[in-house]
Design brief:
The protein has 352 residues and is an alpha/beta fold. The protein has two domains: 219 residues, Spore Coat Polysaccharide Biosynthesis Protein SpsA, Chain A (Alpha-Beta Complex); 92 residues, no CATH class. It contains 14 helices and eleven strands.
Length: 352
């Protein structure tokens, strides 16, 4: 039975960290170590973690350097054959690790196993909608446009993948191996930069499983600044990609990647009820690469409609329309997940 190293960066998450740690301890797959990386957290987060007595938990402390640096610290200390990442405000369902271990054990060419996510609010209540992404035949352009690995709490990765993309640097007074790029200007796009580097520089496949095994928390605090920060980090990520993506491919990909990211930010702004911001991002997406309307007409038109409805429609009426739309979307997404789970099961189980 392979050991999994679970890595949780911790910084100012005292409201959520107990539930996050508990969701790891409740995993049906028991052979794991839990590495909690104290990234110089100034609140009571680590004191809360210290209340857990499970001997699989290890707390590792460092000065505040950001989430990428905390993940790198976790990777350097990890003993497991598979490494799993969980953000400190998200949750896992109990079968999460078991499903990914089974996937990786049965798929020797797959280096990165990911899943889908169900959205929860700040109180942990389900929003009834899911992150539905492409699962197989993931290309670099998929990573740039649709980001199938939807957030940092879904991937479980073979140790060999990190060995293949490691690079040395001296950022903190000693030469160390790095995996995620520690550049803080890259946050929060360091995930996509790593996935893209794996896809471009290694033989490993990136593949998903249909279940929604991660509960991703939607946090509305400081949303305007966060959306603009994410856009700036995306620009930084594209600049870094030029080091390992050919100029010809970057010329083809850059505008496309930016347009899809702007549409994603528009949808995020809609979720956070920032109407004018949503409309601005949606219009910028079309002006950057208008063919997005032809490539994904339904998703693009829904984004435009939702942004404009939010901006111009009276709030009570908008919330009624939104509630109906979310219910329809959630029902459709659940059916799709159930269908894909059914297709994945062995035929003998389907007939039983």
């Amino acid at each position: 039975m392979k050991q999994v190293s679970v890595i949780i960066p911790v910084y100012k998450v005292e409201k959520y960290i107990a539930a996050t740690v508990q969701s790891v301890l409740e995993q049906t797959y028991k052979n794991f170590e839990l590495l909690i990386i104290d990234d110089g957290s100034p609140d009571n987060s680590i004191e809360i973690c210290q209340q857990f007595t499970d001997n699989r938990i290890k707390i590792i402390r460092q000065e505040n350097r950001g989430v990428a640096a905390a993940r790198n610290t976790g990777i350097r200390h990890a003993q497991g054959e598979y490494l799993a990442f969980l953000d400190a405000d998200d949750l896992w369902v109990p079968e999460k690790l078991a499903k990914h271990v089974e996937h990786l054990d049965n798929s020797p060419a797959v280096g990165v196993s990911f899943c889908r996510s169900a959205f929860i609010d700040e109180l942990g209540e389900p929003l009834g909608i899911y992150q539905i992404t492409k699962l197989q035949e993931i290309t670099p352009l998929d990573l740039l446009c649709r980001t199938p690995i939807g957030n940092g709490s879904v991937p479980v990765i073979r140790r060999e993948v990190f060995e293949d993309i490691a690079f040395e640097d001296n950022l903190y007074g000693a030469v160390e191996n790095f995996y995620f790029d520690d550049d803080r200007q890259l946050h929060p796009s360091e995930d996509v930069e790593l996935w893209l580097r794996i896809a471009m520089k290694t033989k490993w496949l990136i593949e998903g499983i249909p279940e929604a095994l991660t509960l991703y928390r939607v946090n509305s605090q400081g949303f305007s600044a966060q959306l603009l920060k994410k856009l700036k980090s995306w620009e930084t990520m594209l600049e870094k990609a030029r080091a390992y993506v050919s100029p010809e491919l970057m010329a083809d990909w850059e505008k496309i990647a930016m347009a899809y990211q702007l549409r994603h930010l528009a949808r995020r702004a809609v979720t956070l009820e920032a109407g004018s911001t949503a409309v601005q991002f949606a219009h910028r997406a079309l002006s950057t690469y208008w063919r997005i309307l032809l490539e994904e007409p339904r998703r693009t038109l829904i984004t435009l409609a939702a942004a404009n409805f939010l901006l111009w429609m009276p709030k009570p009426l908008y919330h009624q329309v939104q509630s109906l739309a979310l219910k329809i979307t959630g029902d459709r997404q659940r059916r799709r997940i159930q269908q894909e789970e059914s297709l994945k099961k062995p035929r003998s189980l389907q007939l039983s």
